[in-house]
Each structure stands twice: as structure tokens, then as C-alpha cells.
Amino acid sequence: MANATSSSELSSSRVDRMIAAAVQKSEELGVNMNIAVVDQGANLKAFRRMDGAWLGSIDIACKKARTARLFDMPTGMIGQISQPGESLYNIEVSNQGLITFPGGLPITDQQGTVIGAVGVSGSTVENDHLVAQAAIDTE
Fold first, then answer.
1. What is the mean pLDDT of the chain?
2. Tell me, what's the pLDDT at 65?
3. What is the spatial distance between Cα 81 and Cα 126, in angstroms, rounded to a whole number?
4. Host H or E run for residue 38
5. Hey, how many other C-beta atoms are within 10 angstroms of the C-beta on 92?
6. pLDDT at position 1, please?
7. Residue 37 contacts by C-beta under 8 Å, 6 or more apart in sequence?
8. What are the sequence ranges of the domains in the chain?
9. Among 52, 94, 35, which residue's Cα sits nearest to residue 70?
10. For residue 36, which of 69, 65, 74, 67 has the smallest C-alpha distance?
11. Which of 61, 62, 112, 139 is the most exposed, having the fewest neighbouring CB atoms within 10 Å of its CB?
């Protein structure tokens, strides 16, 4: 008997569309990216390493996705509030390591509930964010 996907679960078909959109945006920008998608529990749901993408960015993409899900906000926002003197200074050393620069975004359902996150790494943080946003914009 097949399990039905609940409305609060990130479906594999949506993840496939997100990865495809991220790859397309990466190609438009002329960069090779690592793209990670995590589910509601911050568990890896899908990963894509484009040919030639930096090996060091595999872990970064996964941590960006995980960070965005654990705190339900873009990683760039966390970076702003984790600077010296700010309320979350040094948060990046918690939770077995977080990434607090742009490229990780929460994924929401139609009601606005966070159901996962995407993390992208392989270029400048500006490009990482653009590619992550392209994945989010698929729905």
C-alpha cells in the first residue's frame, strides 16, 4: 500500500521541480552549484551536484538548507543578526555547525507553513541566493 503525501509534506515531485529550476538558473548564470533540499525535519530530501561544482560546497549547501529550516528564515537574515554585538553572535557554532550567509531559504506550503528548505552553494553568495530563490519560485 502506497503512503499518501500529506499537504504539510514536501513532495518528491515538488522537490524535482525545485532542483530543475535551480539547475536552470545556475546554467543561466554560468555557474556550477550544489543544491540541497531538506524536509520539515531538516533531513536531506534531495541533493544535486552539478558537474564541476566545488567539492567544499557540498557540505555548505546542506548546512545552508538545514540552517534555513532549523530557524525558518533565510540564512542571510541569520547572518545579519549573528554579527559581533548582535543577539545571535556565534550561533553558527551550534547544532553541529550552521551557515549564516545567503543561499539558504525556507520552503512553505500554500498556508505559509515551513515544510523544508533549500540550500545552494558554489559561487558568490549573491548567485547562491538567486539560485535558491529560483528553486523557491517554482510554486
1. 93
2. 98
3. 18
4. strand 34-38
5. 18
6. 44
7. 10, 15, 18, 19, 44, 45, 46, 47, 65, 107, 116, 117, 118, 119, 135
8. 12-136
9. 94
10. 65
11. 112
Tell me which residue has cell 549564516: 100
Cell of 11: 513532495
Which CATH superfamily, name and number, covers 12-136? Haem-degrading domain (3.30.450.150)
Nearest to 125 by CA among 107, 101, 95: 101
pLDDT digits (tens, 9 = 90+) for 19-36: 999 999 999 999 999 999
| Amino acid symbol at 62 | C
Positive or negative, the Cα torsion across 95, 101, 104, 110?
Answer: positive
**C-alpha span between 80 and 125 (Å, rounded):** 14
pTM: 0.91
* 80-127 pLDDT, tens digit each: 999 999 988 999 889 888 999 999 999 999 999 999 999 999 999 999
Contact 116/5 with Cβ under 8 angstroms? no
